[in-house]
Amino acid sequence: QTSNNAPSFTEVFTELRSSRARNEFLEQIDKLIDWRPFQTLINKKLNKRAEAKGEPTYDGVLMFKILLLETWYN
Questions:
Q1: Per UniProt, what is one Pfam family of this protein (predicted)?
Q2: What is the DSSP letter of 55?
Q3: What's the alpha-carbon Rg for the chain, to the nearest Å?
Q4: How far apart are CA 15 and CA 12, in angstroms?
Q5: Residue 11 contacts residue 1 (beta carbons within 8 Å)
Q6: Where are the domains of the chain?
Q7: What's the start-to-end Cα distance of the chain, in Å?
Q8: Taking a C-beta distance cutoff of 8 angstroms, is the pair 62, 39 a contact?
Q9: How confident is the model at residue 50 (pLDDT cuts 50, 70, 90)?
Q10: What DSSP line would sit under 12-66, residue for residue?
Q11: Which one of 25, 46, 51, 65 has the largest count of C-beta atoms within 10 Å of its C-beta?
């Protein structure tokens, strides 16, 4: 980095390139995987009660995808 703590052109370019590669990977995964069977399995296991209070729960498949991201990217 430069002395004023601003990132250099090379650092920005490298980060953009890396970010694009990650996005392309995630887009490919989303196209290749049919998430509907996962949705069915997850919904069977989720216990959503009508009388539950508080914020609504997150979508089960979304949470599963987050777990996959944690596994792939540490």
A1: DUF772
A2: S
A3: 19
A4: 5
A5: yes
A6: 1-32, 35-74
A7: 26
A8: no
A9: low
A10: HHHHHHHHHHHHHHHHHHHHH---HHHHHHHHHH----TT--SSPPPPHHHHHHH
A11: 65
